[in-house]
Amino acid sequence: MTNYFNEMMENGAVRAPYAHLQGWVDQMPAELRNLKQAEAEALFRRIGITFAVYGEGGDPDRLIPFDMFPRVFSGQEWSRLERGIKQRARALNAFLADVYDRGEIVRAGRLPAKLVYLNEAYEKAVAGIRPPKGVYSHIVGIDLVRTGPDDFFVLEDNCRTPSGVSYMLENREIMMRMFPELFAQNSIQPVEAYPEILRRTLASVAPEKCDSEPNVVILTPGHFNSAYYEHSFLADMMGVELVEGQDLFVEGEFVWMRTTEGPRKVDVIYRRIDDAFLDPLCFRPDSMLGVPGLMDVYRSGGVSICSAPGAGVADDKAVYTFVPEMVRFYLGEEPILQNVPTWQCARGDECKYVLENLGELVVKEVHGSGGYGMLVGPKSTKEQIEAFRAKIEADPDNYIAQPTLALSTVPSFVEEGVAPRHVDLRPYCLVGERIELVPGGLTRVALREGSLVVNSSQGGGVKDTWVLAE
Amino acid sequence: MKLTVEHVTTYVYDQPVRGVVQSHRLLPTQCQNQSVERWNVTVSDGMMGGSFRDGAGDQVQAWTVTGPVERIEVRVTGVVTTTDCAGVLRGNRELIPPVAWLGETGPTMPDSGLKALAAGASGETALPLAHDLSARVSEAIAYTPGATDAHTTAAEALEQGQGVCQDHAHALIACARLRALPARYVSGYLFTDSDGTGHEAAHAWAEIWIEGLGWVGFDPANACCPDERYIRLGCGADAAAAAPIRGIARGPGSERMEIAVAIASAQQ
What we know:
Chain A is of the alpha+beta class. Chain A has helices spanning 19-26, 30-47, 75-99, 104-107, 113-117, 165-178, 180-185, 194-204, 228-238, 294-299, 317-320, 323-331, 348-356, 382-394, and strands at residues 9-10, 13-14, 66-73, 139-148, 151-158, 216-219, 241-243, 248-251, 254-257, 264-266, 268-271, 304-306, 338-339, 343-344, 361-365, 375-376, 399-403, 409-414, 417-426, 428-431, 435-437, 442-446, 460-467.
C-alpha cells in the first residue's frame, strides 16, 4: 500500500497552512454543505463556465465538478515553487530563442539535433526572426505533482496556449462569494490581478513598429471551440477585443481590425489558435480561421503573436526530458523543480530496466497524447503487460517510461463527508518584459476514491488554490 | 554571364475582389553565384508590406492590394551577373541547419516506387550518390508539359513516368531524404538558348546537402547541375513553400493567372 502525502494531515496533526480549515469543516453541518454545493453549482451555471478544461473535449454543456475544499500552500512553500517555475519559464524561453537562432545547445551536443529540427512543432518559417524582448512563450503553464512536503515534480510544460486559467479566477470568485469568513480568517494572497498582469505582459511585447499605446486582441477560433468561454472571459477581464480571423486583415505593413469606426491597427495578438491555422499563406492553405499575410507582418516586426509561432518545440514530450539540461546550459543554475524520472526505451540499458519492471511503471508513446497507447503497470493485468512488452520490443524508440507517482492528496467533499483525494497543479507563469506569477493556479482533483487520474473527462474536478501570505 | 530578366505575372479575377495579399520570393539570392546589377519588382496598385530575410537566407517581401480590383500585374525586371560555381551554392547566409531539411512534406512523401528508386542508387560518398539519384530521377520521369499539375505529388509523377521540373525536383528531394541526405526545393530562372531545347524559363530544381561542400544544386529536368545559366530566387521544403509568389485574394469568384518570362543574355 503506497503511502500518499496528505497535504492537510501529517502524523495525525493538521499542517499549519490548513489550521483554520479544520474548524471550518467541523462546524459545517451536512445540510449546509449540500446547500453550499448546490449554490456553487448554480453560480457556475449562471457564469456559463462548463466542461472543457485543457481542451480535453467531452460534453461541452456538462459542468466540471467544483470541490469547495480549498488546497492551501504556505507562503514559504510557494516561494520555492515560484522560483522553480520562473526558472523553468526562463529556460524554456532561452531554449526557443536559441533553436530559432544558432542552436548552441545542439552544437554543444547537449540535445540531439533531430529531436529539435525534425520535430513537428519546429517552424522553419520563424528561424532567424527574433520576437520582441526575445520572448516566445508568454504564458507558460507548468503541470506539477507533489509527492511529499518538499517534493514537487514537473509532469509537463505547456508553452503554446495553456488553458484553464479562467477556472483559477472563477473558483476564487465563487469561494469568496460563498465563504467570505474564510477570507477574513486566512490571509490569502489574491489572484484577481491575473488579467491585468496578462494584459501588461502582452503590451510589453508590442512590436518595434508600434509607436503608441499597444492595441492587444485575443484571436479565437470561434464559439464552437471548447475553450471559447475562456477566450471571451479573458477578453472581458482584460478589457480587450475578442476577434476571429475574419475580423482581421493585412494591409501594407500592419494587421488591422475592422471596427464600426473604420480599421484599427492591431499590435499584439494573443492567439488561441494553433500555428497551422494562423496564416493560410504560410501554413495550411485551407485554413479559414487565420489571417492571410499575418506571418509576413509578424516576421517583419509589424505585429506580435503570443505565443510565438513555433513555441511548441519546447513542450514536446521527448524534449521535456532535456529541460533540466536547459536550465543548466542557459542559466548556469541547478534546476529547482525536478522532472519525473524518465527512462528512454531508445537507450538499450534503460529499455532493459523498463522491460524488467513493467508492473510498476507507466509507459507512454513518445508522441502520443490524451492517454492513448499508454500502460499503467500497477493497474494492468498480466496479459496487458505482456502485450505491451511485445509492442516495446518491436519499436523501443517510440516509448518512454516513468514511475507511478504517489500524487499527494487534499481533503475533498465527497458523498460520505470529507476524504483525501489526489491532486495536481497548473500555475500560469507570465513572461514579457518581466516574469510574473500570480500566487495560485488551477488544482485538479481526482474525485473518485483511489483514482490518480485528475482529467475532467475521467471524473476530475477543480478546487480553489490558496497561497497564504508569509 | 550577364542575364536580363523580364517576368510578368498577371492575375485576372472574374469579379472584382476586395483585396489581395501576396508574399514574394522574387529577389535573387545574395550569394557568390550571382550578383544583382539592377532589380525591380512592381505590383499594380500595390502597397508594399514588410520585408525580411528568412532562416534560409531568402529575402521575402510582402505586398497588399486594396480592392475592389479585377486585375493585378506583378512585374519583375532586372539584370544579374552569374558565375558558374559547379552547382555549389556559395556564400548564402542561412540559419536553418541542414538536418531540418530531412523532414517530409505532402508532395515529397515517399511511396514504394520512390523507395525503390532511391534504394537502387549507389555512390560511395554523398556526392556521387546524389548525382546517381538525380540521373535516376531524370531517367524515370520524362519531361512532358501538361502531364501533371501544381498538386501532383512526387509519387504520382514517378508512377506515370511523366512530369515537369516541379515533379523532377520533388522526386529527387524525396529520394535524397530517403538516403538521409537533406534536400530542398529551389525556385528561380533558367536561361535557355533559342534552339528550342530548353525548358520553361521560370524554373525549379533541387539542392542536396553534401557534407564538406554545402548545398549543391541538381536539376534532374535538364540532367545537369545549375551553372551560370541559372538565377536562384529562394528555397523551401517543397514547391509551395518555395513559390516565388504566394497570394490570396479576398472575395468570391475565380482567378486566372498568366505568366510570361523572358530571360536573355545581355552580352549578345
